[in-house]
Amino acid sequence: MKRRTLLQSAPLLLAPALLPGQAAAQQYPAKPVRYIVPVAAGGGSDMIGRNLCERLSKVLGQSMVVENIGGGGGVVACQSTQRAAPDGYTLMQGYVATHGTSPATRKLPYDALKDFTPIGMIGSTPNVLVVNTNLPVNNVKELVEYLKKNPARLSYGSAGAGSLTHLTAELFKLQTDTFMVHIPYRGIAPATTDLIAGQTQVMFPGLAAALPHIRSGRLKPLAVTGTQRHPALKDVPTMEQGGLKGFDAQQWYGVVGPANMPAAVVKTLNDAMAQVLAQPDFREKLSAEAVELMPMNPAQFADFMKQDLARWTQLAKARNINLES
């Protein structure tokens, strides 16, 4: 009897012990997952996060609890994510401000690359070059010519110093060797109001924010950023088609977690995201916010964030944009 018991136990004794991280990964997710959205509730970014989580919860078989943490342009949310246990139960919706423009223009209490684990890209929306309807230009070339003939006569609005709308306009000025006065606002809404009223003449808002005003005829679109024309503005050329080679700026959204997450957990999450991004109704939902889906594996997403941060850091240095945190 003792000999039989020992023989039956032998496979268990010989089985390799799982490390804590491996054991956790095998049963992940075993409890609800916290998903931090670094803006206040409401608006496009929040909508994206909530729709993603609704579908991820069904794929993963666990609740995804959305938590809105605004403040500091995403700094508070990033710190909360950075300090969380790297077990996959705290995730964050990173975007161009938290991992691109803000770390390029100011000193932050986190490292945008080293302090986070890239999980996957959700999608992006382009910026669009729009002008006041009274400005006598109809394309990028005419705007550049007007600026050169009328130096310092035009001003451009932005959603704030260091924002994507600010840096995109500075990129335009750098590539065209032109000058416009920067008028920073507290958000895109007041900046748009003044652009329509003629207080400013040029702006690079995100397409989702500009589209209603373009369709109503209150703003004139000249070009979109990105590598191809956007389905919502098929007749509007890209900046490159307008003569600015390599010009790009995107408002992107992705999912990150704290640094050093187990590879198996990251793969589980990325695979689940791939399933969600393949759902036609999710694509349609995000199209309403002018967001085009961009599925990426963790390595591709890490490379994307690295390149985006490098682009804006290089521009900030070239234009001497250095903001206090």
Which short descriptors sum up this protein?
44% helix, six-stranded mixed beta sheet, 12 helices, disordered N terminus, alpha/beta, globular, 325 residues
Estimated structural class: alpha/beta
Instruction: Name the quaternary structure.
Output: single chain
Total number of strands: 11
Number of helices: 12
Q: Let me know the average pLDDT.
A: 92
Question: What's the order of the H and E elements?
Answer: HHEHEHEHEEHEHEHEHEEHHEH
Q: Assign an overall shape.
A: globular
Rg from Cα: 23 Å
Instruction: Note poorly predicted spans.
Output: 1-15
Read across the widest sheet, the strand sequence of neighbours is 2-1-3-10-4-11
Offer a concise description of the structure.
The chain has helices spanning 2-14, 20-26, 44-60, 75-83, 96-105, 140-149, 164-176, 188-197, 207-215, 263-277, 280-287, 298-318; strands at 33-37, 64-68, 90-95, 116-126, 128-132, 155-158, 181-184, 202-203, 219-224, 250-258, 292-293.
